[in-house]
């Protein structure tokens, strides 16, 4: 099976390396060409348009920043649809609004291309070993024909039915990431403000029912001011904006999301966007004038 990959940022690059190491033939495209060098060294064929990725592949995986980027590589000049051929399937692993995703599935279907929305949980560090967690929705027959590939990328794949459902759940998942990052960052800031070593706070937190993967792992990097990105703060802000739009369109009130959106937007304005999303702690340090 020939696989295409569009978007070789942090997550796409790791997925691509894993697919090559698992024996798949891979054709890749990225808007900025130097981000394909590592994949090329590992045996990927690099092309200069999404159209060529479509032409060379049975299944194309998209892992780009946002809905605009997905639209750009899919439907605009030299997009995937212009490389269409019989049986082409698209799996979109970018995190976008479920409404956009549903529309995209329809637009692909007008070109006889079947699209699944296949967002993932987990970063490049687990993607490199095929250990993501995936949510998938769309046509069940299409899903079945991609299952082997999706099982290579993820340890668990949840099929959720109708197109857009996977992206809806992904938004609820990223809401958890947002709140956890803020809760730990404010806990650390509070203990620091009371002249208590935040390691003590984490040690006790991790002895309780309220511990999380974040408090057991990333939090220790956070208190060392290590915000090397695996998922950038600006990309999480983009997802909070999407959660906010989605909830508004449903007439839902999510007060904590509203506040989190404001905090993350200010952090991006203050120049923290390229840090890991846990760099929200560095922003709190700044606004509290902590050295
Ligand atoms: N990192 C994670 O842990 C993680 C986990 C789950 C889901 N995700 C989601 O996966 C997607 C990619 O995340 P990432 O961490 O890999 O982000 P990233 O490192 O910022 O990479 C973003 C990718 O999107 C491309 N892109 C941006 N705007 C574009 C446009 N207008 N046209 C074409 N390509 C465009 C970038 O191309 P250039 O190189 O040219 O800028 C790059 O390949 C995002 O939707 C993110 O929310 C990430």
Quick take:
Helices cover 52% and strands 13% of the residues. It has 291 residues and is an alpha/beta fold. Residues 7-12, 30-32, 35, 63-65, 68-69, 72-73, 94-95, 120, 123-124, 230-232, 235, 239 line the site of NADP nicotinamide-adenine-dinucleotide phosphate (NAP).
Provide structural commentary:
This protein is α/β, with parallel strands linked by helices and 291 residues long. It starts with a strand and ends with a helix. Helix 4 packs parallel to helix 5 (98-110). The chain has a 6-stranded parallel β-sheet with strand order 3-2-1-4-5-6, sandwiched between helices. A 3-stranded mixed β-sheet has the order 7-8-9. It is built from 14 helices and 9 strands. Strand 8 (132-136), helix 7 (140-153) and strand 9 (154-159) form a beta-alpha-beta unit. 43% of the residues are buried. The chain has 2 domains: 2-163, NAD(P)-binding Rossmann-like Domain (Rossmann fold), CATH 3.40.50.720; 167-287, N-(1-d-carboxylethyl)-l-norvaline Dehydrogenase, domain 2 (Orthogonal Bundle). The structure holds NADP nicotinamide-adenine-dinucleotide phosphate (NAP). NADP nicotinamide-adenine-dinucleotide phosphate is lined by residues 7-12, 30-32, 35, 63-65, 68-69, 72-73, 94-95, 120, 123-124, 230-232, 235, 239.
